[in-house]
Inverse folding.
């Protein structure tokens, strides 16, 4: 696991965008796994800037989002589809045909979830999966207790997640109670994982995920099982890591070894 600590949210976001941009340049028809939430917003801004100012070309890129609230149509302002349009898709030249966000309106949910998995396989799998981490240690909507082998499915949201996400809705009762989410097992099949976290509020759970035991109680801890993980943090989110000094040292040494 490569742990990169940047001084603040902006630096964290730029660094994360560089990893995505590097992949898009080296493999123009790559498959990006994307996340919503507050954490990746500035990374998406930086990717938009790179597209506009540096010509970063998304025309052949395919994207898969991690999750969607169940019951919300794509044009609902709080749907994750809407979020992606507003924060990234409408600003870059990704083809609408290559954009996938789980449907919040699927009728036969089980069949739909299987088809989502199939679509990922058909394009050869996800090259880099961007992840945030929830206050309860979740990745995507894999709440504590989700199997580390879980697949795309309908889940009931945890009370904590409903509270955390209420800030985006008029009132807490408006937050959907269900979501469709990629499973932990689905996520672990991506070729590379990149977890982002910023702010003091995430410090404890980040330390549990990276340095604690692998447990279904903190589904982000499953990242420890993957061979190619980059964790990009700001100073605050890194503040409770026991091995913080080592990560800083290791990153410097690795940069020196590979020359930048
Ligand atoms: C979003 C997602 C969630 C968030 C997590 C952190 O697609 O899958 O797991 O990444 O809840 O949310 P923020 O970034 O708002 O703190």
């Amino acid at each position: 696991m490569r742990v990169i600590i940047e001084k603040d949210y902006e630096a964290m976001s730029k660094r994360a965008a560089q990893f995505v941009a590097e992949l898009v340049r080296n493999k123009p028809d790559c498959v990006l796994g994307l996340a919503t939430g507050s954490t990746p917003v500035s990374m998406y801004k930086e990717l938009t800037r790179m597209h506009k100012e540096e010509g970063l070309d998304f025309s052949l890129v395919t994207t898969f989002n991690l999750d969607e609230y169940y019951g919300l149509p794509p044009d609902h302002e709080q749907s994750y589809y809407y979020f992606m349009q507003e924060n990234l898709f409408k600003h870059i030249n990704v083809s609408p045909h290559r954009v996938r966000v789980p449907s919040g309106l699927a009728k036969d949910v089980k069949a739909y979830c299987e088809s989502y998995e199939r679509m990922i396989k058909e394009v050869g799998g996800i090259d880099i999966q961007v992840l945030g981490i929830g206050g309860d240690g979740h990745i995507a909507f894999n709440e504590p207790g989700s199997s580390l082998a879980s697949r795309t499915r309908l889940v009931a949201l945890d009370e904590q997640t409903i509270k955390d996400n209420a800030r985006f809705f008029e009132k807490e009762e408006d937050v959907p109670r269900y979501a469709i989410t990629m499973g932990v097992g689905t996520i672990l099949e991506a070729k590379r994982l990149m977890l982002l976290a910023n702010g003091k509020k995430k410090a404890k759970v980040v330390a549990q995920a990276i340095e604690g035991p692998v447990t279904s109680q903190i589904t982000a801890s499953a990242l420890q099982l993957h061979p190619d993980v980059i964790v990009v943090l700001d100073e605050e989110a890194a503040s409770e890591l026991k091995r913080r000094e080592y990560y800083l040292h290791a990153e410097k040494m690795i940069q020196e070894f590979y020359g930048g």
